[in-house]
Design goal:
nine-stranded mixed β-sheet; 13% helix
Length: 186
């Protein structure tokens, strides 16, 4: 894991996908202390319903493999005490949810952390500017779990999201390292 993390990063959220074509995995929060990585939390997770890819494209239902910074958060609920810049906007987040959804899905964007894949840093997670072009996808977040795979996001239970929001500190340059276990070991 540490080979993939930039030297200045002192926090890493690692998403270990169960397999290349699996939508299930584990999220582990690490923090560097005395030059050693310590586990600060671990939760079951879901990722893209079709698994993982090194060449993510819009609507491919796969999560991108890679290392991405974590700079902005937000949600349809007010800031629970995030150290990352938090963008609260109930209308912006709830407007992205279909009206005919179950209770779990209706609350999936209560809290989100934007994964800096094909997005501008320092803007709300719901900003749809795509520096590498729309065809490369984007709008990939860590958000509340709804029980199954996603379009490309990574989901964790509410307790995990709150821990991440309370723990991730922009002064520690947090990153997410994500992919299926085989590619993360390579």
């Amino acid at each position: 894991m540490s080979k993939r993390v930039p030297a200045r990063a002192q926090q890493a959220v690692v998403v270990y996908g169960d397999g290349r074509d699996s939508d299930e995995g584990t999220v582990v929060l690490y923090q560097k202390q005395n030059n050693a990585w310590k586990i600060k939390g671990s939760w079951p997770a879901h990722n893209g319903r079709a698994g993982w890819t090194t060449a993510h494209r819009l609507d491919d239902d796969r999560s991108p493999v890679g290392v991405f910074s974590l700079t902005d958060a937000g949600g349809s609920l007010e800031d629970p005490g995030s150290h990352l810049r938090y963008w609260y906007d109930d209308n912006a987040f709830t407007s992205m949810i279909d009206e005919d959804v179950d209770e779990d899905t209706a609350h999936q964007f209560d809290y989100v952390i934007a994964i800096d894949y094909n997005r501008l840093k320092g803007v709300p997670p719901f900003d749809w500017t795509r520096p590498q072009g729309v065809e490369k996808g984007g709008g990939i977040w860590l958000h509340l779990d709804h029980g199954d795979g996603t379009s490309a996001c990574v989901t964790v239970p509410e307790s995990g999201m709150k821990t991440l929001l309370h723990t991730l500190d922009p002064h520690l340059h947090p990153v997410v390292v994500m992919g299926d276990r085989a590619r993360l070991k390579a």
